[in-house]
């Protein structure tokens, strides 16, 4: 399973875009990049995923570099409720679906 | 749908006691997972299952056992509780061919 590396923590001003990077330099060609977040002590919540193209949904955008060795999750207008730990995960498209979480990035949105 | 339901929500165990953490999902998902999360840390995979009757070890399986006799249930067994097993335990499920993992609300376990 490909490993991911994320910064330990980041701050972002409320209303500004939050850009959370993730390095996955050992990713294989058929492995997807997934993002989850965990607010306080709740169970993690799915945000978005992608393979090679950029993706956008109502929560966030995902930008994957052309070589697929890194990605960035973008929260376009961060609010205080976006304060959470954000996890980047690499997962193969089929098989065991072995989800390995790293330590994530603790995002703090400042008023 | 209730989603993923974990019971109990809180439990205090004495060293050496045993208990079973329950996890049930009503979404007919084949893939189920158990994680533990120590204070201030990320999630560590304990065990996972790709379907009824099939389980496999994750990153930190020692001290735990699982079984998967039905699609709906994936209980986690602690045989001899130790203080190092004090943690929050999360159960999750994913449908076959699906993308999103659904998590329960967690069981907070303290071993004293």
Name some characteristics of this structure.
heterodimer, A: 111 residues, mainly beta, 5-stranded mixed beta sheet, 4-stranded antiparallel beta sheet, 0% helix, 45% strand, B: 112 residues, 7-stranded mixed beta sheet, 11 strands, globular
Question: Could you characterize the architecture of this molecule?
Answer:
The complex is a heterodimer of chains A (111) and B (112). Chain A contains no helices and nine strands. With 111 residues, chain A is an all-beta fold. The relative contact order of chain A is 0.34. The model of chain A has no long low-confidence stretch (mean pLDDT 92). By secondary structure, chain B is mainly beta. Chain B is built from no helices and eleven strands. Chain B has strands at 4-7, 10-13, 19-25, 31-37, 43-51, 54-57, 64-66, 76-78, 87-94, 102-103, 107-111. In chain B, a hairpin with a 5-residue loop joins β4 and β5. The model of chain B has no long low-confidence stretch (mean pLDDT 94). At the A-B interface, β3 and β4 of A face β4, β5, β9 and β10 of B.
Tally of helical runs of chain A: 0
Strand content of chain A: over 45%
Query: H/E order of the elements of chain A?
Result: EEEEEEEEE
Over the alpha carbons, how many angstroms does the gyration radius of chain A reach? 13 Å
Q: What is the SS-derived class of chain B? A: mainly beta
The whole-angstrom Rg of chain B is 13 Å
Shape verdict of chain B: globular
Give the biggest sheet of chain B.
7 strands, mixed
The share of residues in helices of chain B is: under 10%
- Distance from N terminus to C terminus of chain A (CA atoms, Å) equals 38 Å
Helix proportion of residues of chain A, in percent?
Answer: under 10%
